[in-house]
Every structure is written in C-alpha cells, then in structure tokens.
C-alpha cells in the first residue's frame, strides 16, 4: 500500500491535533506536577506561548483563565522562582486586544509582587490608553483600576501616590 504525501500530511496533522487535545485535557494534572518541580518558569513560558498562538478569543480566554487558576495555586517558593523570561512573557499578554486576557495577565503579575518589577513599564503602557483624562476611581473594578492595583502591589505604593501616565 502506497501512501500519498497529502495523506501523510493528514496523518501527521491528526497526530498533532490528538497530542494537543491530550495536552489540554491533562493540563490540570500537569499543573499539579509543575508546582513540585523547579521548572515552573519554563512551564509558564510555554503555557503563555500556547496562549499567544491560540486562535479564537473564547479559546484564548479559557486558556489564560486556566493559567491564572494554576497561578493561584502556586506557593510562595514557586512564585519566587519565576524567572524574568516568564515574567516578560506574562507581561506580553498585556498587549492582547482582549480586556479579560489583559486583566488575567495583570493579576498574575500582581500575584508575583515585587519580583515582577520589570513588568511595571508594560503595565504602565497597558494603562496609558485606558486612563483617558487621567481620572480613575480605583473601586470601579475596570481594567484600568486592576492594572493600578497590580502596579501598587508590585511597587508597594498606594495608587493615590502613583504618577499615572497621561495620553
């Protein structure tokens, strides 16, 4: 039996899809295992890369929500072991068009705390187009106030003492 090149490509594509489905289905198991290893940063970097390559807003939101949920389960030692590459990749999610994705990215950076200080410029850049006139009420619960709270958590300065970027 001779298999044509187009059929070989279909088989390879099917194998890749099945592998990805398996990976996504078993991600919660992998998340539990990651917390006990020293590869937390690498796993987060890979997860963010997967999110960035995902097509479709609803799928992307689901993936970033799962990463955020994983993040909330990390202990202090795991959070403190997150390297600058992983922080930069999370900060890159602040450039996404979707507010929910940017909000999750900001919350993850806020959870990292002062260790994520290198992400403050990306947070300020994400905040700049949201502040408009510069009048923000932190209690509104919008993306701008979430970013302000994150910057506050990272820099250890209350939002009222911050110099907000202006348009």
SSE arrangement:
Elements: H1 5-25, H2 27-34, H3 40-53, H4 57-72, H5 76-80, H6 84-92, H7 99-112, H8 120-131, H9 143-155
Helix pairs in contact: 3-4, 3-6, 4-7, 6-7, 7-9, 8-9
Q: What form results from the Cα inertia axes?
A: elongated
Distance between the termini: 66 Å
Give a count of the beta strands, DSSP E runs of length 2 or more: 0
The assembly state of the depicted protein chains is single chain
Low-confidence runs of at least 5 consecutive residues: 33-38
Number of helices: 9
Summarize the amount of helix as a percent range.
55-70%
What is the radius of gyration?
Answer: 19 Å
Structural class: mainly alpha
SSE order in H/E notation?
HHHHHHHHH
- Summed over residues and divided by their number, the pLDDT gives a mean of 77
Describe the biggest sheet?
none
* Beta fraction: under 5%
Short précis:
The protein is an all-alpha fold and 167 residues long.
Defining traits:
single chain, 167 residues, mainly alpha, 0% strand, elongated
Describe the structure in your own words.
Helix 3 (40-53) runs parallel beside helix 6 (84-92). With 167 residues, the chain is an all-alpha fold. The N and C termini lie far apart (66 Å). The protein has helices at 5-25, 27-34, 40-53, 57-72, 76-80, 84-92, 99-112, 120-131, 143-155.
């Amino acid at each position: 039996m001779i298999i044509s090149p187009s059929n070989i490509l279909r088989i390879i594509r099917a194998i890749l899809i099945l592998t990805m489905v398996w990976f996504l289905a078993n991600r919660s198991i992998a998340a539990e295992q990651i917390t006990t290893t020293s590869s937390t940063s690498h796993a987060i970097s890979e997860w963010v890369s997967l999110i960035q390559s995902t097509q479709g807003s609803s799928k992307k939101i689901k993936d970033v929500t799962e990463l955020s949920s994983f993040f909330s389960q990390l202990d202090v030692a795991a959070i403190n072991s997150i390297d600058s590459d992983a922080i930069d990749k999370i900060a890159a999610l602040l450039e996404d068009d979707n507010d929910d994705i940017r909000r999750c990215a900001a919350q993850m950076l806020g959870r990292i705390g002062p260790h994520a200080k290198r992400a403050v410029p990306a947070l300020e850049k994400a905040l700049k187009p949201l502040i408009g006139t510069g009048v923000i009420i932190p209690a509104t619960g919008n993306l701008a106030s979430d970013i302000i709270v994150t910057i506050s958590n990272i820099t250890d300065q209350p939002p009222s003492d911050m110099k907000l970027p202006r348009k």
